[in-house]
Design goal:
The chain has 404 residues and is of the alpha/beta class. The chain has two domains: 2-71 and 229-401, Alkaline Phosphatase, subunit A (3-Layer(aba) Sandwich); 82-225, no CATH class. It has 15 helices and 15 strands. It has helices at residues 24-27, 31-37, 56-63, 68-71, 76-82, 122-136, 185-199, 203-210, 233-237, 248-256, 275-287, 299-305, 309-334, 380-385, 396-401, and strands spanning 2-8, 41-45, 92-101, 112-114, 141-147, 150-155, 162-163, 181-182, 218-225, 241-244, 260-261, 292-297, 338-343, 360-366, 389-390. The strands form three sheets. The chain has an eight-stranded mixed β-sheet with strand order 11-10-12-1-13-14-2-15, sandwiched between helices. Strands 3, 4, 5, 6 and 9 form a five-stranded antiparallel β-sheet that branches. Strands 7-8 form a two-stranded antiparallel ribbon. Helix 10 (248-256) links the parallel strand 10 and strand 11 (260-261). Helix 5 (76-82) crosses helix 10, helix 11 (275-287) packs parallel to helix 13 and helix 12 packs antiparallel against helix 13 (309-334). It is globular, with a radius of gyration of 21 Å.
């Protein structure tokens, strides 16, 4: 038996007036999911435990079978590990976004215009981060370049306890009241304010403004944490697993669990990713010895954060056509028995532009037998109607692996 998780990050949503009162899942044309739904168990699952913020870190950890109550130590260390940063036990890491803040006025009066600095390219970002490193790095802190707007700051011999706000939680809002508080907050605020002065007139940003793009005129620090100790995935589940993702966070979870990190050329963290390439690569890995592949797609989440329901619908349709369709066709043609879990990690409604901790709809399918519990489509409402509910998200993958 081969197993897959096909995860559309942030795919669940609220009803959207512009879509005729439908969610993005309801509005999307999903013939492949519709075909599976009639033979699938469809229900709701709580992936974000009470007391946790609804981040992709906590939620993806849950879906991969790791109880956040036991394993979670913060978001940034998961990304740092993926970036090749060797973390010591007393290192504290922080996610460092390149963001676009409004011009003029005091720093605390600025508006968070864009948490991703206009989806800045990795090439441009690397130049800006290298420039910041010259002014930031010392014996106690080091800035590391990542991909696009996602970077990392490591504090040696650090302390946790700062109250930090994810920038995507305050899109179009004033940053006042959301700046760092608590332990080391003065240091963090000082670095953020200094970054604005350094970046606002940088040639790359002046060029971006001239081209009508959002400048990366500040950093934003959040997601602090220390290196977690995850169990070996094969020891925990008895299966050889791999991860396909364009996001350092998800790769980091996989690396800490000693899973195979599978790279796909053309994979991005947005709706222009190579959906089919991810699917074809996943099946190839399954046919070449892996028992399980986790296919993570960031596109719906990014669209949700931007309030872009049109491209969120498009992303779901691409997942249906090029991932669901390709995976099932290839495995059927190969004569393999397989089971699939389709789900988001958390909802990211276009109306709020941020994550929610609400239960997510899931679909469990196998080509061996019907698992139907009465749903006719894979949507939020259909999942709720079945009355099938799993309160502990880390147990969802156990339901998948229980299919033999």
């Amino acid at each position: 038996m081969k197993y897959l998780v096909i995860l559309g990050d942030g795919m669940a949503d609220w009803k959207i007036p512009e879509l005729g009162g439908k969610t993005c899942l309801e509005a999307a044309k999903t013939p492949n999911l519709n075909k599976l739904a009639r033979f699938s168990e469809i229900g709701l699952c709580k992936t974000v435990p009470d007391g946790f913020k609804p981040g992709s870190d906590v939620a993806n950890m849950s879906v991969l079978g790791f109880d956040p109550n036991k394993y979670y130590t913060g978001r940034s260390p998961l990304e740092a590990v993926s970036m090749g940063v060797g973390l010591k036990p007393d290192d504290v890491t922080l996610r460092c976004n390149l963001v676009t803040l409004s011009e003029g006025g005091a720093y605390e009066e600025k508006i968070m215009l864009d948490y991703s600095a206009g989806d800045i390219s990795t090439e441009e970002a690397n130049v800006l981060v290298a420039f910041l490193k010259e002014n930031f790095d010392n014996e106690t802190r080091t800035l590391y370049a990542g991909l696009q707007y996602r970077h990392c700051l490591v504090m040696a011999n650090g302390s946790t306890g700062a109250h930090l706000t994810p920038p995507h939680d305050i899109s179009d809002k004033c940053v006042k009241g959301h700046l760092p508080e608590g332990v080391n907050s003065g240091i963090y605020r000082g670095l953020m304010e200094k970054s604005y002065e350094l970046l606002k007139d940088h040639p790359i940003n002046l060029k971006r403004i001239k081209e009508g793009k959002n400048p990366a005129n500040s950093i934003w620090l959040w997601g602090e944490g220390t290196k977690p100790a995850l169990e070996n995935f094969k020891s925990l589940h008895g299966l050889k697993g791999g991860v396909i993702s364009a996001v350092d966070l998800v790769k980091g979870i996989g690396m800490l669990a000693d899973m195979k990190i599978i790279e796909v050329a053309g994979a991005t963290g947005n709706y222009n990713t190579d959906f089919k390439g991810k699917a074809e690569t996943a099946v190839a890995e399954l046919l070449n010895g892996l028992d399980f592949v986790y296919i993570h797609m960031e596109a719906p989440d990014e669209c949700g954060h931007h309030g872009d329901f049109k491209h969120k619908v498009y992303s779901i349709e691409q997942i249906d056509k090029f991932v669901i369709g390709t995976v099932t066709e290839m495995l059927n043609r190969a004569g393999e028995d397989y089971a699939i879990l389709v789900c988001p990690d958390h909802p990211t409604p276009c109306a709020t532009k941020t994550h929610l901790s609400d239960p997510i709809p899931y679909l469990l399918y196998t080509n061996k037998k019907s698992l139907s519990n009465g749903a006719v489509r894979y949507t939020e409402d259909e999942a709720a109607k079945t009355k099938t509910y799993l309160p502990d998200g880390y147990k969802l993958i156990k339901k998948l692996f229980a299919i033999k």
